[in-house]
Structures are given as structure tokens and as C-alpha cells.
Write a structure and sequence with these properties.
Helix content: 25-40%
Order of helices and strands: EEEHHHHEHEHEHEEEHHEHHEEE
Largest sheet: 8 strands, parallel
Number of strands: 13
Number of helices: 11
């Protein structure tokens, strides 16, 4: 088996901003796993929040042996971007070797289209209202917030999209005081869920207050080992392949979280259709799907995912799986 890693960049349709910074392109690593007759592909997005760079993740992958399996990979690499790209490439390779779809190999039903959130980048209230108005026909909008001055942004988005369902992602940007002040207004404006309002590791206050609005763990939840620290603080977990380290762990995390009473959101980093494709398998039956990465791009893979009024569809074999 031969493993190759390629760094690639895909332009965004517009500047994308969260509480930690802005970007104009998606910088990804594409992993190819070849057995001579078949090739499997996977993609990851190294994330500086977790100490990852394109170079560090590529180095992790380059040190792997040639006789990889899903089981051995789980012990050779920690949860994170490197393991994700390789794990997903191995699943793609297995599907091509067997002439079957990945969900058939796993024993799951074929993914149905799922309505995905569409993310509005953090900006001025006027700009966010304009973004919301432009996308007011979308059934689910996700608002990037995370500053002390977010009330005006919330009001502006609701004015721009009065009928859309809204979820909010603070990306760890609020203090306990800011969140306590905003929470009643989130409910008043019809927000259905708030994602990671406080920094991971500084979120104990969430266990001490009533949570009429569901709170989702994102940066605080990576894999199954994260679950014990979430108890009493969160109502939902956001499963992202680049955090779990691949589809193998993501499926196990979904099962474990569900058994412990958490609702599930399936999310993504800003990547291409190749990165989203394995996550469509996870999205079946979850509370929220947020696989809009390709919708934020100006350019995508050659066989991109299909998005329409029914939602995001399962990948074709030409893309993955």
C-alpha cells in the first residue's frame, strides 16, 4: 500500500470570519492510499486551534507504515486531522476494492438528503443582515458570533431572515457574563441552539445555570474520551471528522453520545466536498447537519456533492466511498 499526501488550496467565495480570525481560502491536505489497482482518497483541514499545520499533519502521515488497517490506525495516530484523512481514504479504498458503497460495508442505510445549515460569517450588523437577506430562503442559518457586541448582529440577522431557523456558534468567544446576558435574547429571537458559548476547559458555569436553549459542545468534544468532561454542561455534541480522527471514531462517538443522552450535530471545517462526503453517513437522523463547506467555496472537487432544496446528498462513487 502506498500513501501520498498533497497540500491543496481552494478559493472561498468570500472572506470567512469567525471569532478567531479570517480566511480567503481553504487549505487542505489530500491523502491518497493506493494498492496498485485501486485508489482511496481522503481530505483533512489542519486546524491551528489544535496546534495543527499543513506541515505537521503531513509529517504525521508520512511516518505511517504501509500495512495500515482501520484498527491499527486508531493506535498509531491520535484523534485529529492526520488520522481523519487516512481513515477516510482507507474506507474509500475498501469500497473500491469491494465494489460496494461504504455504508454497505458498515451495515448502515444509504444516506438520505439532509437539510444543512448555511453559515453566515462574522461581520458588522449591516453586513450580516445583508448576508441573511440574501440567504433568507434557506431553512437553516448558522450565525458566527463570539464578541461582546453580538446583540446587534443577532437582531440584524433575524431582520434579514425572519422565517429561517437559526443556530448560533460563538467559537469559544464569550465570557460567562456575556453569555448570561445574551441567552434570554437568543430565545426571544428564536435561536434553536448555541454552539460552544464558552472556551473549552473554562465552561463549568454551564453546569450551574438552567439551559432552556440547548448548548452544543464543539471545541470541547473531540472523541469518545471527551464525553465524561461534558456531563451536566452540554446537551448536544458536534461531531467533526477532523476532530474525531476519521469516520471510524466518529461512528463510535455518535453511538456513545446517543446512549448517554446527548443530541448530535454533524459539522465540518471549511473544506471541499471530499471532506464532507464521509460525514453524510453520520448525518442520518441527527438534530442538526452543518456540512456547508462546499457552499462557501468558489471552486470545488471535480465530482462535488449535490446540494438542493432537499439538502446535501450522499456522494457519488466518483467523489468518495
Amino acid at each position: 500500500m502506498r500513501i501520498t499526501v498533497t497540500a491543496e488550496s481552494f478559493k472561498l467565495a468570500q472572506v470567512f470570519t469567525i471569532s478567531r480570525g479570517s480566511r480567503t481560502q481553504a487549505d487542505v491536505l489530500t491523502v491518497r492510499v493506493q494498492d496498485g489497482a485501486h485508489q482511496g482518497m481522503g481530505e483533512c483541514v489542519p486546524y491551528a486551534r489544535y496546534g495543527e499545520t499543513l506541515e505537521s499533519v503531513a509529517a504525521e502521515i508520512s511516518g505511517l507504515p504501509d500495512d495500515l488497517t482501520h484498527e491499527s490506525l486508531q493506535t498509531l495516530l491520535p484523534a485529529g486531522a492526520a488520522r481523519n484523512a487516512v481513515d477516510c481514504a482507507l474506507w474509500d479504498l475498501a469500497a473500491k476494492q469491494a465494489g460496494k458503497r461504504v455504508w454497505d460495508l458498515i451495515g448502515l442505510p444509504a444516506p438520505r438528503p439532509e437539510i444543512t445549515a448555511y453559515t453566515l460569517s462574522l461581520d458588522t450588523p449591516d453586513a450580516m443582515q445583508a448576508q441573511a437577506a440574501k440567504n433568507a430562503a434557506r431553512p437553516l442559518l448558522k450565525i458566527k458570533l463570539g464578541t461582546p457586541d453580538d446583540m446587534a448582529r443577532l437582531e440584524a440577522v433575524r431582520r434579514g431572515a425572519p422565517k429561517s431557523r437559526i443556530i448560533v456558534d460563538a467559537n469559544e468567544g464569550w465570557t460567562a457574563e456575556v453569555y448570561a446576558d445574551l441567552a434570554p435574547h437568543l430565545i426571544r429571537l428564536g435561536v434553536q441552539m448555541v454552539e460552544q458559548p464558552l472556551p473549552a476547559g473554562a465552561d463549568d458555569m454551564l453546569a450551574e445555570i438552567a439551559r432552556p436553549l440547548p448548548v452544543c459542545a464543539d471545541e470541547a468534544c473531540h472523541d469518545r474520551a471527551s464525553l465524561p468532561k461534558l456531563k451536566g454542561k452540554y446537551d448536544m455534541v458536534n461531531i467533526k471528522l477532523d476532530k474525531t480522527g476519521g469516520l471510524t471514531e466518529a461512528l463510535l462517538l455518535k453511538d456513545a453520545a446517543t446512549q448517554e443522552g446527548y443530541a448530535v450535530m454533524v459539522g465540518c471545517m471549511v473544506g471541499t466536498s471530499l471532506a464532507m462526503a464521509p460525514a453524510t453517513i453520520l448525518a442520518h437522523g441527527v438534530a442538526f447537519t452543518d456540512l456547508d463547506g462546499p457552499l462557501l467555496l468558489a471552486e470545488d472537487r471535480a465530482a462535488p456533492l449535490k446540494f438542493d432544496e432537499a439538502g446535501v446528498h450522499a456522494p457519488t462513487p466518483a467523489l468518495w466511498g
